[in-house]
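Usage

Read records sequentially. Each one opens with the input sequence:
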Amino acid sequence: MKYLLQGLLFGLAYVAPIGAQNLYVINTATSQSKLRTYQVALITVFFDISLAISCFFGIGLLIDKCLLLKEIILLLGSVIVTYIGIGLIRSTSKVSDSKNGDDSLIKIIASCFAVTWLNPQAIIDGSLLLGGFKASLPSEMSKYFILGVCIASFVWFNSLAILVSKFRSKFNKLIKWINVICGVILIFYGVKLGYSFIQLIK
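and closes with the structure output:
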């Protein structure tokens, strides 16, 4: 139980800061139907947990050592995250409860994958943090720690989706600005990834 709680607290501290994943869930909760919002939350949880588990077992070390793989992720991440950000800025400012206003499920999955997996810095940082904890844990207890991290991801993103969706009527006049702010921050992430790619290939 001790290691499960450690993983839960670490996981909450890891996913709570506003980043690309949180921004995407918030934007979906303010601009699309509740069903789609909960789908986005669950898809984000899936990719976040898969990334956490991969980081826990050291995939960041592989990316850091394989220059070509790192370059590919940086380039794809830059293009896709920037594209998502531009899409948010250009999106409608009206809340829609109808399914007609929702993005396709394939687009949602691709976007959730992009904001989670196409950021090598997040992968490497996650590997250092989670890998560091793994090294400090008794080997038989590590499974409880990573389970706690996974539970934290599930609780956080679903709570965020429910909370923002529940009170989204209060965001009605602010939705366009929320979209713009989220979009600008995502574009910043994308440009930062692009800059890292350029620095890497010099």
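Summary fields computed downstream for this record:
- The chain is about 80% helix and 0% strand.
- The longest helix spans residues 175-201.
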